[in-house]
Design goal:
Layout (H helix, E strand, L loop, with lengths): L1 E4 L26 H4 L14 E3 L5 E8 L2 H13 L4 E9 L5 E8 L7 H9 L6 E6 L5 E3 L6 E3 L2 E7 H15 L1 H26 L3 H14 L4 E8 L4 E7 L17 H15 L5 E6 L8 E6 L1
Antiparallel strand pairs: 1-9, 2-7, 3-5, 3-6, 4-5, 8-9, 10-11, 11-13, 12-13
Length: about 300
Protein backbone atom coordinates (compact mmCIF):
# COMPACT_ATOMS: atom_id res chain seq x y z
CA UNK A 1 0.00 0.00 0.00
CA UNK A 2 1.32 3.46 -0.88
CA UNK A 3 0.52 6.96 0.32
CA UNK A 4 1.20 10.06 -1.77
CA UNK A 5 2.46 12.94 0.28
CA UNK A 6 3.63 16.48 -0.37
CA UNK A 7 1.82 16.16 1.52
CA UNK A 8 0.04 15.77 -1.83
CA UNK A 9 -1.62 13.04 -3.79
CA UNK A 10 -1.03 11.90 -7.32
CA UNK A 11 -2.49 12.41 -10.79
CA UNK A 12 -0.89 11.55 -14.13
CA UNK A 13 -0.72 14.73 -16.16
CA UNK A 14 1.68 17.56 -16.89
CA UNK A 15 0.48 21.00 -15.81
CA UNK A 16 0.39 23.39 -18.73
CA UNK A 17 -1.91 26.17 -17.47
CA UNK A 18 -2.57 27.81 -14.09
CA UNK A 19 -4.97 26.08 -11.73
CA UNK A 20 -7.52 28.88 -12.12
CA UNK A 21 -7.78 28.08 -15.81
CA UNK A 22 -8.34 24.36 -15.19
CA UNK A 23 -11.68 24.00 -13.39
CA UNK A 24 -12.36 20.50 -12.11
CA UNK A 25 -15.24 18.47 -13.35
CA UNK A 26 -17.42 18.69 -10.26
CA UNK A 27 -19.74 15.89 -11.25
CA UNK A 28 -21.65 13.33 -9.25
CA UNK A 29 -18.96 10.66 -9.32
CA UNK A 30 -16.96 12.66 -6.77
CA UNK A 31 -19.58 12.39 -4.08
CA UNK A 32 -19.79 9.84 -1.28
CA UNK A 33 -23.21 8.64 -2.41
CA UNK A 34 -21.52 7.18 -5.46
CA UNK A 35 -18.32 6.12 -3.72
CA UNK A 36 -20.37 4.20 -1.15
CA UNK A 37 -22.26 2.29 -3.84
CA UNK A 38 -21.94 -1.48 -3.63
CA UNK A 39 -21.51 -1.43 -7.41
CA UNK A 40 -18.28 0.58 -7.18
CA UNK A 41 -15.44 -1.36 -8.80
CA UNK A 42 -12.07 -0.99 -7.08
CA UNK A 43 -8.79 -2.60 -8.00
CA UNK A 44 -5.32 -2.27 -6.44
CA UNK A 45 -3.37 0.14 -8.64
CA UNK A 46 0.41 0.23 -8.79
CA UNK A 47 2.23 3.50 -9.35
CA UNK A 48 4.12 2.94 -12.62
CA UNK A 49 7.53 3.80 -11.20
CA UNK A 50 9.20 0.42 -10.62
CA UNK A 51 8.85 -3.01 -12.22
CA UNK A 52 10.41 -6.08 -10.62
CA UNK A 53 10.11 -9.48 -12.32
CA UNK A 54 12.75 -11.79 -10.86
CA UNK A 55 14.47 -13.94 -13.43
CA UNK A 56 12.75 -12.20 -16.37
CA UNK A 57 13.94 -9.71 -19.00
CA UNK A 58 12.05 -6.44 -18.55
CA UNK A 59 12.42 -2.98 -20.04
CA UNK A 60 10.79 0.43 -20.09
CA UNK A 61 9.34 1.36 -23.48
CA UNK A 62 8.63 5.06 -24.03
CA UNK A 63 6.99 6.64 -27.07
CA UNK A 64 5.77 10.15 -27.88
CA UNK A 65 3.05 10.52 -30.49
CA UNK A 66 1.38 13.69 -31.78
CA UNK A 67 -2.10 12.33 -31.12
CA UNK A 68 -4.08 9.37 -29.83
CA UNK A 69 -4.28 7.62 -33.19
CA UNK A 70 -0.50 7.36 -33.32
CA UNK A 71 -0.43 5.79 -29.87
CA UNK A 72 -3.13 3.30 -30.85
CA UNK A 73 -1.00 2.19 -33.80
CA UNK A 74 2.06 1.57 -31.64
CA UNK A 75 0.01 -0.22 -28.96
CA UNK A 76 -1.48 -2.43 -31.65
CA UNK A 77 2.01 -3.18 -32.91
CA UNK A 78 3.14 -4.19 -29.43
CA UNK A 79 0.05 -6.36 -29.01
CA UNK A 80 0.85 -8.13 -32.28
CA UNK A 81 4.13 -9.30 -30.77
CA UNK A 82 2.45 -11.93 -28.66
CA UNK A 83 5.63 -12.85 -26.83
CA UNK A 84 6.05 -9.28 -25.48
CA UNK A 85 3.94 -8.87 -22.35
CA UNK A 86 2.84 -5.39 -21.24
CA UNK A 87 3.04 -5.22 -17.43
CA UNK A 88 1.83 -1.67 -16.78
CA UNK A 89 2.57 1.95 -17.48
CA UNK A 90 1.32 5.51 -17.71
CA UNK A 91 -0.13 7.91 -20.28
CA UNK A 92 0.65 11.63 -19.99
CA UNK A 93 -0.13 14.67 -22.13
CA UNK A 94 3.10 16.61 -22.66
CA UNK A 95 3.58 20.33 -23.07
CA UNK A 96 3.19 20.57 -26.84
CA UNK A 97 -0.04 18.59 -26.83
CA UNK A 98 1.54 15.27 -27.74
CA UNK A 99 1.02 12.08 -25.77
CA UNK A 100 3.77 10.22 -23.96
CA UNK A 101 3.24 6.58 -23.07
CA UNK A 102 5.67 4.74 -20.84
CA UNK A 103 5.25 0.98 -20.54
CA UNK A 104 6.98 -1.79 -18.67
CA UNK A 105 7.33 -4.83 -20.94
CA UNK A 106 8.51 -8.39 -20.37
CA UNK A 107 10.33 -9.54 -23.51
CA UNK A 108 11.89 -12.73 -22.08
CA UNK A 109 10.23 -15.07 -24.58
CA UNK A 110 10.40 -12.79 -27.61
CA UNK A 111 13.95 -13.55 -28.66
CA UNK A 112 14.48 -9.79 -28.96
CA UNK A 113 16.83 -7.41 -27.22
CA UNK A 114 15.76 -3.90 -26.10
CA UNK A 115 17.52 -2.57 -29.19
CA UNK A 116 15.64 -5.07 -31.33
CA UNK A 117 12.28 -3.99 -29.88
CA UNK A 118 13.13 -0.34 -30.53
CA UNK A 119 14.17 -1.08 -34.10
CA UNK A 120 11.05 -3.16 -34.71
CA UNK A 121 8.67 -0.47 -33.46
CA UNK A 122 10.65 2.53 -34.72
CA UNK A 123 9.83 1.87 -38.34
CA UNK A 124 6.09 2.43 -37.87
CA UNK A 125 6.43 6.14 -38.61
CA UNK A 126 3.57 7.38 -36.42
CA UNK A 127 5.55 8.41 -33.35
CA UNK A 128 7.82 11.39 -32.85
CA UNK A 129 10.17 9.61 -30.45
CA UNK A 130 10.70 6.05 -29.28
CA UNK A 131 13.11 4.51 -26.84
CA UNK A 132 13.42 1.15 -25.12
CA UNK A 133 15.70 1.16 -22.12
CA UNK A 134 17.19 -2.07 -20.85
CA UNK A 135 16.71 -3.10 -17.24
CA UNK A 136 18.97 -1.60 -14.59
CA UNK A 137 19.45 -5.13 -13.31
CA UNK A 138 18.09 -8.51 -14.31
CA UNK A 139 14.32 -8.40 -13.84
CA UNK A 140 14.24 -4.73 -12.73
CA UNK A 141 13.17 -1.62 -14.66
CA UNK A 142 12.45 1.94 -13.48
CA UNK A 143 10.33 4.66 -15.08
CA UNK A 144 12.93 7.24 -16.11
CA UNK A 145 10.42 9.93 -17.16
CA UNK A 146 8.04 10.23 -14.20
CA UNK A 147 9.36 13.38 -12.53
CA UNK A 148 8.10 15.47 -10.94
CA UNK A 149 5.07 13.61 -9.66
CA UNK A 150 2.12 16.01 -9.53
CA UNK A 151 -1.19 16.44 -7.74
CA UNK A 152 -2.98 19.00 -9.85
CA UNK A 153 -0.49 21.88 -9.95
CA UNK A 154 1.42 20.76 -6.84
CA UNK A 155 4.40 18.49 -6.58
CA UNK A 156 3.83 15.19 -4.78
CA UNK A 157 6.10 12.54 -3.30
CA UNK A 158 5.48 8.92 -2.36
CA UNK A 159 6.03 6.95 0.83
CA UNK A 160 5.06 3.33 1.33
CA UNK A 161 2.45 3.14 4.10
CA UNK A 162 4.43 0.58 6.10
CA UNK A 163 7.42 2.92 6.18
CA UNK A 164 5.25 5.89 7.14
CA UNK A 165 3.66 3.91 9.98
CA UNK A 166 7.10 2.79 11.17
CA UNK A 167 8.16 6.46 11.29
CA UNK A 168 5.07 7.30 13.38
CA UNK A 169 5.83 4.42 15.77
CA UNK A 170 9.39 5.69 16.08
CA UNK A 171 8.05 9.12 17.04
CA UNK A 172 5.87 7.53 19.72
CA UNK A 173 8.83 5.61 21.11
CA UNK A 174 10.90 8.80 21.31
CA UNK A 175 8.25 11.33 22.34
CA UNK A 176 5.51 9.30 24.03
CA UNK A 177 2.01 10.80 23.92
CA UNK A 178 3.46 14.06 22.61
CA UNK A 179 3.96 12.28 19.28
CA UNK A 180 0.19 11.85 18.89
CA UNK A 181 -0.33 15.56 19.54
CA UNK A 182 2.34 16.36 16.95
CA UNK A 183 0.73 14.06 14.38
CA UNK A 184 -2.68 15.62 15.05
CA UNK A 185 -1.25 19.12 14.56
CA UNK A 186 0.49 18.09 11.32
CA UNK A 187 -2.77 16.60 10.04
CA UNK A 188 -4.69 19.72 11.03
CA UNK A 189 -2.37 22.00 9.08
CA UNK A 190 -2.54 19.71 6.08
CA UNK A 191 -6.34 19.54 6.24
CA UNK A 192 -6.52 23.34 6.26
CA UNK A 193 -4.14 23.69 3.32
CA UNK A 194 -5.84 20.88 1.38
CA UNK A 195 -9.30 22.43 1.75
CA UNK A 196 -8.05 25.93 1.02
CA UNK A 197 -6.38 24.83 -2.21
CA UNK A 198 -9.40 22.83 -3.34
CA UNK A 199 -11.74 25.73 -2.53
CA UNK A 200 -9.59 28.11 -4.59
CA UNK A 201 -9.59 25.68 -7.50
CA UNK A 202 -13.30 24.78 -7.46
CA UNK A 203 -15.05 27.66 -5.60
CA UNK A 204 -16.86 25.06 -3.46
CA UNK A 205 -17.45 25.60 0.26
CA UNK A 206 -19.14 23.87 3.16
CA UNK A 207 -20.51 20.37 2.78
CA UNK A 208 -19.77 20.23 -0.96
CA UNK A 209 -16.10 20.96 -0.33
CA UNK A 210 -15.96 18.34 2.43
CA UNK A 211 -17.55 15.72 0.20
CA UNK A 212 -15.16 16.43 -2.66
CA UNK A 213 -12.18 16.34 -0.30
CA UNK A 214 -13.20 12.98 1.17
CA UNK A 215 -13.66 11.60 -2.34
CA UNK A 216 -10.23 12.83 -3.39
CA UNK A 217 -8.34 11.38 -0.43
CA UNK A 218 -10.07 8.06 -1.12
CA UNK A 219 -8.97 8.21 -4.75
CA UNK A 220 -5.46 8.98 -3.49
CA UNK A 221 -5.24 5.81 -1.45
CA UNK A 222 -5.73 7.11 2.10
CA UNK A 223 -8.80 5.06 2.99
CA UNK A 224 -12.22 3.90 1.77
CA UNK A 225 -15.17 6.02 2.86
CA UNK A 226 -17.91 3.81 4.31
CA UNK A 227 -20.38 6.32 5.75
CA UNK A 228 -20.87 10.08 5.93
CA UNK A 229 -23.61 11.89 7.85
CA UNK A 230 -24.00 15.63 8.30
CA UNK A 231 -26.35 17.78 10.36
CA UNK A 232 -25.60 21.29 9.11
CA UNK A 233 -28.05 22.91 11.53
CA UNK A 234 -26.45 21.39 14.62
CA UNK A 235 -22.96 21.48 13.11
CA UNK A 236 -22.40 17.80 13.86
CA UNK A 237 -20.83 15.28 11.50
CA UNK A 238 -20.04 11.58 11.61
CA UNK A 239 -18.06 9.50 9.19
CA UNK A 240 -16.61 6.02 8.94
CA UNK A 241 -13.63 4.85 6.89
CA UNK A 242 -11.92 1.53 6.29
CA UNK A 243 -8.30 0.65 5.49
CA UNK A 244 -7.01 4.01 6.76
CA UNK A 245 -3.27 4.12 6.14
CA UNK A 246 -2.49 4.98 9.79
CA UNK A 247 -4.19 1.77 10.89
CA UNK A 248 -2.69 -0.61 8.36
CA UNK A 249 -0.93 -2.54 11.14
CA UNK A 250 -3.59 -4.08 13.35
CA UNK A 251 -2.89 -4.78 17.01
CA UNK A 252 -5.23 -7.45 18.44
CA UNK A 253 -6.16 -6.66 22.02
CA UNK A 254 -4.88 -3.08 21.82
CA UNK A 255 -7.08 -0.35 23.27
CA UNK A 256 -5.32 2.74 21.85
CA UNK A 257 -6.64 4.55 18.76
CA UNK A 258 -4.08 5.32 16.08
CA UNK A 259 -5.72 7.74 13.63
CA UNK A 260 -4.23 10.97 14.98
CA UNK A 261 -2.98 12.42 11.70
CA UNK A 262 -6.28 11.74 9.94
CA UNK A 263 -8.26 13.05 12.93
CA UNK A 264 -6.29 16.30 12.68
CA UNK A 265 -6.79 16.36 8.92
CA UNK A 266 -10.57 16.13 9.37
CA UNK A 267 -10.59 18.92 11.93
CA UNK A 268 -8.58 21.26 9.69
CA UNK A 269 -10.63 20.30 6.64
CA UNK A 270 -14.00 20.99 8.27
CA UNK A 271 -12.82 24.25 9.86
CA UNK A 272 -11.61 25.58 6.52
CA UNK A 273 -14.64 24.32 4.59
CA UNK A 274 -17.17 25.91 6.95
CA UNK A 275 -15.17 28.96 8.06
CA UNK A 276 -15.20 27.79 11.69
CA UNK A 277 -12.60 27.49 14.43
CA UNK A 278 -11.98 24.88 17.09
CA UNK A 279 -13.94 22.00 15.57
CA UNK A 280 -13.52 18.99 17.83
CA UNK A 281 -12.84 15.59 16.26
CA UNK A 282 -12.67 12.32 18.16
CA UNK A 283 -12.17 8.78 16.94
CA UNK A 284 -14.82 6.59 18.53
CA UNK A 285 -13.70 3.29 16.94
CA UNK A 286 -10.36 2.36 15.40
CA UNK A 287 -9.64 -0.40 12.91
CA UNK A 288 -6.15 -0.74 14.40
CA UNK A 289 -7.93 -2.20 17.45
CA UNK A 290 -9.68 -4.77 15.25
CA UNK A 291 -12.87 -2.71 14.92
CA UNK A 292 -14.60 -3.03 11.55
CA UNK A 293 -13.79 0.57 10.65
CA UNK A 294 -12.43 3.85 12.00
CA UNK A 295 -15.35 6.04 13.12
CA UNK A 296 -15.08 9.78 13.72
CA UNK A 297 -17.39 12.37 15.27
CA UNK A 298 -16.96 16.12 14.72
CA UNK A 299 -18.79 19.05 16.29
CA UNK A 300 -18.41 22.75 17.05
Amino acid sequence: MTIFISMCLCVNHVVTTPAAARPRDISSEYYPENLLSAKTFRVPTSLPSLCVRKGRSVAELTAIAPDLSGLIVILSSIASKKSVDVLGGSLVKVFDGGLLISLFVDYTDSGLSPEGIEHSLGGIGVVESLSVNGALAKGVAVNSHMFPLMMGDKRAVVFAVDYFCDMMEHLRERLGEAANALLYDMGHKYGEAFARSLRTETSLTGDELVRLSLAEVQASGWCVLENYQADANKMVWRLSVKELFECSKRRPGASVNRSHFFRGFLSGLFEEAFGLVNISCVETLCQANVADACDFALWV
